Input
Amino acid sequence: MSRINIGELSLNYHEVGSGEPILFIPGMMGLLEAWKFQMEYFSNRYRCISFDHRGTGESDKPPNAYSTDLVAKDAISLLDALGIERAHVIGTSTGGCILQVMAIEYPERLLSATFNNTWTTADAYIRRVQTFRQKIAKSYGPEEYVEFSSLWTCGPLQFRYGWQELEQLEARQKKTIAPVDVLVGRLQMSIDHNRVSDLHKITTPSLIIGTKDDSTVPAYLSEDLAKAITNSELVLLNEGGHYSYRYNPMGFNDAFEPFLIKNAINGK
Output
């Protein structure tokens, strides 16, 4: 992992492999390790890049500068700094909201767009989930916020069958966690995100992946996004919770890889 200056701030990022680039955007926790399994798998044929969001990990943590528009701009600036003109981009959860902004505002930079377990704009359910995460952070502090969030994002199956990986991810979250005001601001950006009126403008080849047992972002929100983006493809995984790409990485990769191959420049 390395830090790179993108202009307004510095981001922590990691890249591995060579070939057509894939940018993996994490969700609300914002840590690049979220995509560990996909980075390892796809790096045999692609240049795989991920980064810690502003306000997370080893990236800079400005006190009052959080919106999906800003993180989308960070992602584009990272591509610029790495000399990447166009990339396949995949974003999960809040990362999928960030990708919506990229697909609307910077379509010329995308080869394809994959939205995983994300939403168009926060409905009553998403608002309640994120508002209670804010309350936990304010009332009990950053470490308790991390542990509470894992209950929602990982679900019981990953506690039972993937505890070691979960524990490692939580350890870095706790070690690098931002102050409470930054946590609250990042959660607020997920509540405030709303580009519904612009989604019809997305012409980038788009894949939406949802998970039927996701209790953080219900699958009906993936269906909403698929309806809003013309000619998009929808895949609903049966199980895996919000972190389906970590709980069942090969099942997730099997859903993602054919779309990636179909939209690759070199057709491989």
